[in-house]
Amino acid sequence: MGISKTQIFSPSQxxxxxxFKALAHPARIAILQYLSRQEGCICNDIVEEIGLAxxxxxxxxxxxxxxxxxQGEVEGKKICYCINTEAWKGLQNEFHSFFETGGNxxx
Length: 107
Hints:
The chain is mostly helical. Helix content is 55%, strand content 11%. The protein has a two-stranded antiparallel ribbon.
């Protein structure tokens, strides 16, 4: 496998690629959909809702938090998670900008 040449891309391109890579797993999509339907932070309910083992859920949450799509708050011995709305708005704006700069279609 070749070496990634991330240094030749802009910080924005690299960040966007990391976020999309984090979104490229169905368990993470399910977690995000579940979190987006909640009123506040969620601690233990994610494992029950998604149906995967606690360590697996924890790894997916770690990946989503690493790219900034969710936030975690420590409450006692638990970490409660919620959607990072600011990051989502930024991701949405960047994604929409792909289609706004269009122009002529090649097909």
